Amino acid sequence: MKRAFVDANVILRFLTGQPPEQAEQARRLFEAVEQGRTTLWVETIVVAEVVWVLESFYGFPKSQIARILQGFLLHEGLRLPDKEGVLQALALYAQYNVDFADALLSVRMQRVGTPALISFDRDFDRLPGVQRFTPDAWQATLASS
Fold first, then answer.
1. Is the four-CA dihedral 25, 31, 36, 40 of positive or negative sign?
2. H helix runs in the chain, sequence order
3. What is the pLDDT of residues 2-56, one digit of tens each?
């Protein structure tokens, strides 16, 4: 079986049907995946780009993006370096209304058992298990230890 990496623009054409000519090519490609004739690797950064374009350019709501991509990425013919983590991040992204990158970082933090995050982004305060510190607040914890 042949394998290849796939770029965000091919996934976007498949998911949106636009433009029709390229969408048809993408549909045929994913049909080959469905039939088990090829395996496609999808990098996490590609998923992040798809999320960003669907949200910013196409105006899809986060819940719809998460639902569509979760279903799409579950296909056994698609390989991701951390499929489970990406799927968890998509769920957090929709549930807590945060950026996908923030949700993905939260999943990684939980996996390595490090809940502390240094950030100015208050959106992290909505994510369970994340303890956000500003740089000064983190420095204060260093001074007290």
1. positive
2. 8-16, 20-34, 44-56, 62-73, 83-95, 100-112, 135-143
3. 999 999 999 999 999 999 999 999 999 999 999 999 999 999 999 999 999 999 9
Residue 99, Cβ neighbours under 10 Å: how many?
17
CATH class entry, domain 2-113: alpha beta
Claim: this prediction has a pTM higher than 0.85: yes
Q: Return the closest-CA partner of residue 87 out of 130, 58, 47, 46.
A: 47
Enter the tokens of residue 65. Answer: 């993006």
**Where exactly are the structural domains of the chain?**
2-113
| Closest listed residue to residue 106, CA positions, set 122, 93, 120, 94 | 93
Which of 93, 104, 43, 46 is closest to 66 using CA atoms? 93
